[in-house]
Amino acid sequence: MRDRRRCIDMRLRRLAAALAVSGLLFGTAACGSGSGSARAGDPNTLEVWTRSDPESAQTYQRVFAAFTKKTGIKIDYQPVMNFDQQLQSRASTKDLPDVMINDTALMGSYQAQGLLKPVTPDSIAGHDEITAKSWSSTVGLDGRHYGIPYSRQAMTLFVRKDWREKLGLPQPKTWQDTLALAKAFATRDPDGDGKKDTYGMVVPGSAQNGYVAWWGSSWLWQGGVRILQKEGTGYRPAMDSAAALRTVSWMKKNLFCGDSGVIQPSALTSVTANTTNFQDGNAGMYLTGPYNISTFDKALGKDTYEVLPAPTGPAGNNDVLADGENIYFGAKTGKAKQEQTLAAFLVSPEGQELAMTGDHQPVVRIPVNSTLDAAKVREDPRWSVVQKAYEDDSQQFPNAPDWAPMKQDTADALNAIFTYCGSDVRSGLKELNDTLAGDLKDQDLLK
Amino acid sequence: MTATATTPGPRRARIPGRKAVLPWLFLAPGLLLALVFKFLPMGKGVWLSFFDVRPFLGDQWVGLDNYTRVLTDHRFQDAIGHTLLLGIGMSLGGIVAGFVLALLLEGQARSLKIIRTAVFLPVVTATAVVGEMWRLMYYPTSDGLINSGLGLLGLGPVPYLDNPDTALWATMAMGIWMLAPYNMVIILAGLAGVDRSLYEAAAMDGVSLWQRLRHITLPAIRPALGIVLTLAAIRGLRVFTEVYVLTGGGPAGSTDVWMTRAYTLGFTRNDIGGASAASVVLLCVTLLLTVTVNYLRKRGDVR
């Protein structure tokens, strides 16, 4: 009996030791597989992150493969869906990717956290082929550049051409035309199925991730509104202006609280990912970015819809939001030469063309390289509407300050104003203005 | 084991000493994993909550500023109310619905097994998928599943998620739908242990259904209810995915809960210090709630 017990005891102890060792190994492996991978130390390998879904990641992969073939510099490519979250966690370990490609409007935020290496435009071969307008969007608060323009885009108005022609209405040129067309789409059964199941316009109006500020900014500019006004070396919030009151009141009255059907139901909790009414064929208009063109072509067919410049607002302009992606160099990586070589390739005609074409979703929308014409490269005249909107009629979010909190606060305020139809717009905007002033003060930028 | 450990005598004490090491060895892998992936990050989170976090420019010590800022922010104050309402509503609703489901689906029949499996499906489905599904069901026109049902009764359509007065309740209903089957399984296990002869005796005495539930079933499943309550206390306040997927905290912040605020602060506004402070507050409150529920449960058991 005693022998048997000892035997069991020994077996148990051996098992315990094995478990403990395997646990230790697993723990070490888990620690080792994080940021400091073996390739991070290799000077000839760049770790590159882009905010991409699997579809657009395939286009990036093609671009990077061409780069490696040409230069011999290897790319450890990571498409990251929840980019901001992952980047913050990598930042907390002070080990950033060498190169990141992400939104222009986040530059101020990254710079405020010290995540970026400054860039000298002269150090990038082909820098003179990028327009001054594009370069200007990478200047930080201290006057230095913190990114290299990579892709640009501007919003345009997508309209169901077949519906519009069936109802015998002209292309919308003004806000009034747009509203009338939206009402007609909602009430005059443009799809001819005898049911009232169509909507005028698609709106991603949720405050989540600042969507309503992103979509609504074009309307604000067409109404003559500025969210922030630059003043000397700082900024002043400008959402308490008469123009802001007039514009936001118009949007609230006509789009969100007016006749039902002008915008799609559930707009106030919609983000772009679940706002699919246009491609589903039950909404007639969508003011959005050109990255949707390939999706709409597949879902609706090229001939069913048209790409138009945004309508002219009461301020007499048809400005739209321009944004895009920049190439950023992560702070403190010490691979400057390789990073600059990659950036030069990405902005070169070859790199840009590769990223604009192919079977998968293109990752360069409007090329930053001024020698290229988006419509010619893609053999699609609709892209010239987008390119013209970007070059002539577009505004960008201020990139130098940390814009992220201000975009979120603007979205929170607009979403609340549009939700409560009986609320006072003036006091809502006044509160937003005070919040924006607080944000600017936090960044020592309030004038 | 406690009994042998307290037994005096050098020889006997030595063996239990060696034996006491054994459980720790078994626990070591789990503990190590928990240490690396849970407790160290948690400790780091607590540490960061006292800083203005700027990894590359140097973190700045701000003391309790982050806590003050979070606790005085009116959006966070609103979120506390929503979190409590949602946490308590989902927990209690989930327990009641789970109890009813368990009573209805208790038994050995093959058909019941199939129904039980079907009812359990929400638990194994990813919350993100459930959220998208419920968004479609809640679609605010007569095309939506629920509204088309209401239409048959001559009612609606109701804009469940787009009306700030109903959005939180709609989120709660989805939460209950997801939680109830999980509670059902635990309560079913409790019900299996109820002495059948008590029911037979009750039937002979001619007691009502309510009396049977009140005096036989509920006391018998008290341990199962204790477990369900403890779990509810732990997860009730940290509700996040349901809200994030279904409404994103909107409209007009009417469904914002503590975790969605903390997420927005950390990952939209890049304020890691503030988000850490908010998370630490939530950790403390959850810990307090869990300990209280456990204390009350134990006191109830003793009584």
Automatic annotation (TrEMBL), chain A:
The UniProt entry's sequence similarity note says:
Belongs to the bacterial solute-binding protein 1 family.
Record's superkingdom?
Bacteria
What organism does this protein naturally occur in?
Streptomyces koelreuteriae
Which CDD domains has this protein been placed in?
Answer: PBP2_TMBP_like
Per the UniProt entry, the signal peptide is 1-40
Q: Which UniProt keywords apply?
A: Signal, Transport
Protein name, per record? Sugar ABC transporter substrate-binding protein
From TrEMBL, chain B:
Q: Which PROSITE patterns has this protein been placed in?
A: ABC_TM1 (PS50928)
**Listed name of the protein:** Sugar ABC transporter permease
ABC transmembrane type-1 domain: from which residue to which, for each copy?
80-293
- Spans through the membrane: 21-40, 84-105, 117-137, 167-194, 215-234, 272-296
Q: Where in the cell is it found?
A: Cell membrane
The species is Streptomyces koelreuteriae
What superkingdom heads the lineage? Bacteria
Membrane topology qualifier: Multi-pass membrane protein
This protein's UniProt keywords: Cell membrane, Membrane, Transmembrane, Transmembrane helix, Transport
Q: Which Pfam families match?
A: BPD_transp_1 (PF00528)
Q: Which family does it belong to?
A: Belongs to the binding-protein-dependent transport system permease family.
